[in-house]
Write a structure and sequence with these properties.
44% of the residues are buried. By secondary structure, the protein is α/β, with parallel strands linked by helices. It has eleven helices and eleven strands. The chain has two domains: 132 residues, 3-Layer(aba) Sandwich (D-Maltodextrin-Binding Protein, domain 2); 88 residues, D-Maltodextrin-Binding Protein, domain 2.
């Protein structure tokens, strides 16, 4: 046991992907580094499990978990989303057309993206392929299926000249006209007062003001240039949820219910800021 642990600090969890870096930089190196106890994991689904098990007071989780984890509320304004092309949530195939896909391997580490893929095929493409859940290894996934869902940093490294890569946020906008919200901070109802002491919007703004430091940290492991990383974090990823993106989120939930990907939906409940 870590004897130095301060149990009075809010416990928060988030994935360690590049697209979350501006949201958690303040808690690691910035002005709020002593304000919380931060846990990081590469899988967004793991963060959802921590929230559901009361191992975290708040977590940055796939949005679909709002209807799966009881007694949680959304921290407003801050999100991981995209208004056009997200680049890091993609469907990879050697086929030239998604209508030629017969089986899809799903990386289930982000349940929002897995549900989104099913909605795209069922609702917009008009058919349903076979599904299988796989470890996020592109080579083995494509040995067993015609297409593979890859999320996060691994998706950034897929050679676009070797595969046909369909960007899920781009597909969503083409079919609906809306941006897409992939993840949001959510807090347990019994922890709302404690979480209210944490300024998640200010943490986001501080992180976005330190993109040089974030780029320097991620560049070696991703093999991307500074400009590419900064473009991704400023043009591809949206960290604020505007009205149009909220409409897209509500439509996603409506379609998830219609296609029985969630059992029921409830109105979006935001923690008062």
């Amino acid at each position: 046991m870590n004897e130095r642990r301060n149990d009075s600090r809010p416990r928060i969890a988030a994935s360690s992907y590049l697209n979350t870096a501006p949201l958690i930089w303040s808690f690691i190196l910035g002005s709020q580094r002593d304000a919380v106890e931060l846990f990081t994991d590469t899988a967004p689904a793991r963060c959802a499990e921590m929230l559901a098990r009361d191992e975290a007071d708040a977590a940055l989780v796939p949005v679909v978990e709002y209807h799966r984890i009881p007694n949680v509320a959304i921290i407003p304004d801050v999100c991981v989303g995209s208004r056009s092309a997200v680049r890091s949530v993609v469907l990879v195939t050697r086929r030239n057309n998604l209508k030629k896909v017969g089986r899809v391997a799903l990386d289930d580490s982000s349940r929002t993206s897995a549900a989104l893929v099913k909605i795209i095929f069922r609702e917009f493409l008009g058919f349903e392929p076979e599904w299988q859940t796989s470890q996020p290894d592109l080579k083995s996934m494509l040995m067993q299926a015609d297409a593979a869902l890859i999320i996060g940093d691994p998706a950034m490294k897929i050679p676009r000249d070797q595969f046909r890569v369909f960007d899920l946020a781009t597909l969503w906008r083409e079919f609906t006209g809306f941006g897409f919200v992939f993840a949001m901070w959510m807090a347990r109802q019994e922890s709302v007062e404690k979480i209210g002491l944490v300024d998640f919007a200010a943490a986001r703004d501080e992180g976005l003001a330190h993109l040089d430091e974030i780029s320097a940290e991620y560049k070696p492991q991703l093999g991307l240039s500074d400009d590419d990383i900064k473009t991704y974090l400023t043009d591809n990823i949206a960290f604020r949820m505007d009205e149009e993106m909220e409409k897209g989120l509500k439509l996603y939930f409506e379609l998830a219910i219609e296609h029985k990907l969630i059992e029921s939906a409830r109105p979006l409940e935001f923690i008062a800021s």
